[in-house]
Amino acid sequence: MKPLPVIQNPASATPGPATSSQTAGMTPDPARTADLKPRILEALSTVFDPEIPVNIYELGLIYDVIINTSSAVGIRMTLTAPACPAAQFLPAEVKNKVAQIAGVTDVKVDIVWDPPWDRDRMSDAAKLQLGLF
Known about the structure:
Structural class: alpha+beta
Strand content: 15-25%
Order of helices and strands: EEHEEHEH
C-alpha cells in the first residue's frame, strides 16, 4: 500500500513528500522537554476538532512533540481523515497556541498520515465522552 503524503505547509493543505519535513532532524533535549512539554500538552488540550467535541490531544491526533536545545518545538500530528475540512486551520491553531507559551522559540507542525488515525488512538476519557464504551 502506498503511503499517503505529508502536508508540508498545513495552512495551504498542499501535499508534500511522504516524510515529516519540518520536524525531521529535530533532536529532543530532555531538560527542555521536561520543562516545556507539560505546558505544551496543556495548550494542545485547548484545541478542538470542530466536528468532534473533544480536544485534539485526547482524540489522539498528536503523535509526537519534540523540543530541542533552543526550545524550538516540533509537533507531528494527524487529522481524523485526509479530506478533513479542519486541515485548512487546525495546524495553524496548534502552532499559534504553542507559540504563545513562554520559553518556546519556534514551532514547526507536520501533518502525517502514517500511521493512520483510528478510534483506538483516543484516550479512554475521549471515548467515554463520545459514548464509545
